Amino acid sequence: xxxxxxxxxxxxxxxxxxxxxxxxxxxxxxxxxxxxxxxxxxxxxxxxxxxxxxxxxxxxxxxxxxxxxxxxxxxxxxxxxxxxxxxxxxxxxxxxxxxxxxxxxxxxxxxxxxxxxxxxxxxx
Length: 124
Known about the structure:
- By secondary structure, the chain is mainly alpha-helical.
- It has helices at residues 2-20, 26-33, 37-49, 65-87, 92-102, 108-122, and strands at 53-55, 61-63.
- Helix content is 72%, strand content 5%.
- A two-stranded antiparallel sheet has the order 1-2.
- The N and C termini lie far apart (36 Å).
């Protein structure tokens, strides 16, 4: 469970950084997560070994097709859960903090239920 959560945090962070910047590097991830560079370097190696990212000659990080899909799925969970919590009356900070924790442990089946409910609310 811990490996999956950490992996997902890194993938989501890379995804969000890529939405803001052209080239993502380990230092950007370390800064964003407030992690040490050696920890980030180790994680990058693991993500690369799992086939989620590639690192070019300038140490720029890119997603593989599989990595991008996984990162998008994690971000979607975060976004949907956050929006649901805000819609239920939680303030944005509380909603974000809790969504960040829940997105890593919620089952796909339960997320599908939440997402269907969220989409139903959006159509009203």
